């Protein structure tokens, strides 16, 4: 019985640890237009352009889905704003 309790405690500790690690896995997404008029997206803002942080606007998009390209994200956001 003691061995079972130890195993249970270890498993629960591991699950709680994994849960705490996964809580704060956010990153910022930035959008900017370069000198040629091309729109770019990235997780680091460039020093040379005016940058708009769009993290909160795309917060609910699953980037690993069909909205994985920046152009598709932009079209999706424009459709929401329309």
What would the principal axes of the Cα set say about the shape?
Answer: elongated
What integer value in Å does the Rg equal? Answer: 20 Å
- The number of strands is 3
Helix content: 40-55%
Uncertain runs are: none
The major sheet is characterized as: 3 strands, antiparallel
Count of DSSP H/I helices: 2
Q: Tell me the structural class.
A: alpha+beta
- Spatial gap, N to C terminus: 62 Å
Which strand order do you get reading across the main beta sheet?
2-1-3
Task: Tell me the strand percentage band.
Answer: 5-15%
**Element order: H for helix, E for strand:** HEEEH
Mean pLDDT: 76
General description of the model:
This protein is α+β, with helices and mostly antiparallel strands. It is elongated, with a radius of gyration of 20 Å. It has a domain at 25-81. 41% of the residues lie in helices and 13% in strands. The protein starts with a helix and ends with a helix. The mean pLDDT is 76. It has a 3-stranded antiparallel β-sheet, with no helix packed on it.
Short description:
By secondary structure, this protein is α+β, with helices and mostly antiparallel strands. It has 2 helices and 3 strands, in the order H-E-E-E-H. The model has no long low-confidence stretch (mean pLDDT 76).
